[in-house]
């Protein structure tokens, strides 16, 4: 027992910082979205550089006819993090997000959560940071023009990420739905990026050094055919990210050097599901660590087969945890029971009832 | 786009009900702890009765030298639930809880969370409900006296659960630390239970029809030896709940009919880890469903080898979700991004920044 005895206010131990959607937007505004993506990329790179210290588990899925809910846990031996994320393609029809998420970072030494945060916006930002970071190693030097095929919710973040990290100045946008491209152009109007809306994928990739595919249909589609892809480009394939969902013709893969986050996962979820299980790929962490080469020639086609990996979320959670003291954009949640005497959990319940009041929620 | 266009207030879709520790205590007070445990037991029984409709996954652990963090997901095909729980035996030394938890219930058809709640208190209550429910099938008829060996945080809840569901009137309490027994007796003073503090385990079990073992040490201990256990008793073994942690001498197990939640898990985590992998056990759901017998004779020793299972947490989450509209003891968290146009996530971020304000957290 200690000085807190018989106190009804939870101590600091009981509180977990919580970042709501509104607070996440305020955190982005506090440092600016490009700095935010740059910061995320730094944390992601840091964690990829210590790749071998992570416990890399496959995602744990719960399937329904309409979609999937996944838990993505990982740990570096000191800190534990997980993301909850859903993927429900038909949600849009009902005015819901197709992908939403939240995450938790915890101290593995005590088991206590350190952070609870929305991750719908954060996932969009970390996905862009992951793509742009990879492109700093894989895109041709001096790349300024990026084709963006698929102009949905993720496309804005990709454009801003590639502006911040790669120096892209021009976006050539294509979507089956011209309204989606107009939306993208409108949102990027004040960003400093020049956006050209294109009438076909072929028109979009004209002159582009980088091709980003980020379409949403949950099926094997062929957004790019082989004859559309010339030598020297970098393909940032973001949309193919679950079994049965791909965007590129197989022949493009066969002409490309393929870079991945975690091969065991990409072979199931990425473009790579079209190729034999032993097809050679390079892991990005090895490129960042200088163990393997990124782009080696100006004629090479490089392909980042992005599916998203738990360590990127872990890095994003770390970034937010470190940002919060600077911005103050969070509230404290009374999530953890904190009795005066840890063995006296019921005593806490009992005293709360007798007093007819408890601590603030 | 719809009527919400350009609105900055999240719609109802964006909010997830959150039950803090304080609100959980208020929810317990609102209906009374015995009714609360009875309600939990009803929901647990309901879910055990549809056992085969659940996706039963093993827990997903992250280990550290100090303890473990586990994610426990399950789904019935319509609803998804998971619990985050830690077990850190040395936390008490630092004034922290050894076990804390929180949980989430979600709609599998949309992936959207329906409830986010503390589960430290809720887990203590559902563990008691699980034990007491099992005892209604396994304890000798007319049992009134229960020995409780180990008088830590879980013991109060066990006593109240057995009063509510089994009709126990007398508790015989023993702990290595007499202060723990005094604490238990003090907390139960107004409950209607008679509590006798005993000086040895042998004294505690005198005349008891039910023996509850609920000690906390993470080691293979022998709280009960074979000669202490007479015919006809029901043993409710709660403390042995992870690899390397057991409470009963192996010979007791060999004389008992053993009942378990989920054999695959109990064989690793429960008292059962002392026996060969093919030792016969009965699954509780089969007893509740009338497929297997519970207690069949007055001389039989029955043993519930309790380790805790995800479906109990799922049932507890359902119980809280259904209770909240009646008590109102929750707040709404702005956890889900809810742009006017689901494809326009960045537009929401952008408008929030331009307006210089966002929705309430």
Helix and strand topology:
2 copies of one chain form a homodimer.
Chain A lengths: L14 E5 L1 H11 L1 H17 L5 E2 L3 E5 L2 E9 L3 E9 L11 E9 L5 E6 L1 H19 L6 E5 L5 H12 L3 E5 L3 H10 L6 E4 L3 H5 L4 E4 L6 E5 L9 E4 L8 E3 L1 H6 E5 L2 H7 L12 E2 H5 L12 E5 L4 H18 L3 E4 L10 H11 L6
Parallel strand pairs in A: 1-7, 8-9, 8-11, 9-10, 11-13, 12-14, 13-17, 15-16, 15-17
Antiparallel strand pairs in A: 1-18, 2-4, 3-4, 4-5, 5-6, 6-7
Helix pairs in contact in A: 2-3, 2-4, 2-10, 3-4
The main pleated sheet of chain A reads as:
8 strands, mixed
Total DSSP helices of chain A = 11
Low-pLDDT residue intervals, each spanning 5 or more residues of chain A: 1-8, 357-361
**What is the multimeric organization of the chains shown?**
homodimer
Can you tell me the CATH superfamily of the largest domain in chain A?
NAD(P)-binding Rossmann-like Domain
Mean pLDDT of chain A: 91
Helix vs. strand class of chain A:
alpha/beta
What sort of overall outline of chain A do the alpha carbons produce when their principal axes are compared? globular
Query: Roughly what fraction of the amino acids of chain A lie in strands?
Result: 25-35%
Biggest interface and residues each? A-B, 89 and 89 residues
CATH level-two architecture of the largest domain in chain A: 3-Layer(aba) Sandwich
Distance between the termini of chain A: 24 Å
What is the fold named in CATH at topology level of the largest domain in chain A? Rossmann fold
**CATH C-level label of the largest domain in chain A:** Alpha Beta
Helix content of chain A: 25-40%
Radius of gyration of chain A: 22 Å
Total domain units of chain A: 2
* Total strands of chain A: 18
Series of H and E elements of chain A: EHHEEEEEEHEHEHEHEEEEHEHEHEHEH
């Amino acid at each position: 027992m200690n000085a807190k005895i018989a106190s009804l206010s939870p101590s600091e131990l009981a509180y977990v910082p919580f970042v709501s959607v509104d607070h996440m937007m305020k955190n982005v505004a506090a440092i600016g979205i490009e700095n935010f993506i740059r910061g995320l990329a730094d944390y992601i790179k840091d964690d990829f550089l210590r790749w071998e210290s992570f416990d890399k588990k496959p995602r744990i899925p719960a399937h329904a006819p309409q979609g999937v809910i996944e838990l993505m846990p990982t740990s570096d031996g000191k800190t534990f993090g997980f993301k909850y994320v859903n993927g429900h393609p038909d949600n849009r029809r009902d005015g819901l997000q197709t992908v939403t998420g939240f995450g938790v970072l915890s101290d593995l030494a005590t088991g206590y959560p350190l952070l609870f945060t929305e991750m719908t916006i954060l996932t969009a930002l970390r996905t862009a940071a992951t793509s742009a970071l990879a492109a700093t190693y894989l895109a041709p030097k001096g790349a300024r023009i990026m084709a963006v095929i698929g102009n949905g919710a993720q496309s804005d973040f990709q454009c801003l990420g590639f502006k911040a990290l790669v120096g892209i100045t021009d976006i050539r946008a294509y979507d089956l739905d011209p309204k989606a491209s107009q939306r993208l152009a409108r949102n990027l109007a004040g960003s400093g990026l020049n956006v050209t809306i294109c009438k076909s994928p072929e028109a979009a990739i004209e002159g582009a050094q980088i091709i980003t595919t980020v379409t949403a249909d949950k099926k094997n589609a062929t957004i790019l055919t082989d004859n559309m892809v010339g030598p020297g480009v970098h393909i940032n394939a973001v949309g193919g990210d679950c079994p049965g969902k791909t965007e590129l013709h197989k022949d493009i893969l066969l002409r490309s050097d393929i870079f991945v986050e975690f091969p065991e996962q990409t072979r199931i979820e990425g473009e790579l599901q079209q190729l034999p299980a032993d097809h050679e790929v390079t892991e990005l962490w090895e490129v960042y660590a200088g163990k393997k080469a990124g782009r080696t020639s100006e004629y090479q086609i490089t392909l980042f087969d992005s599916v998203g990996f738990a360590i990127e979320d872990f890095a994003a959670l770390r970034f937010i945890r470190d940002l919060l003291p600077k911005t103050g954009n969070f509230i404290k949640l009374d999530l953890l029971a904190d009795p005066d005497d840890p063995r006296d959990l019921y005593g806490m319940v009992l005293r709360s009832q007798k007093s007819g009041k408890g601590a603030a929620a």
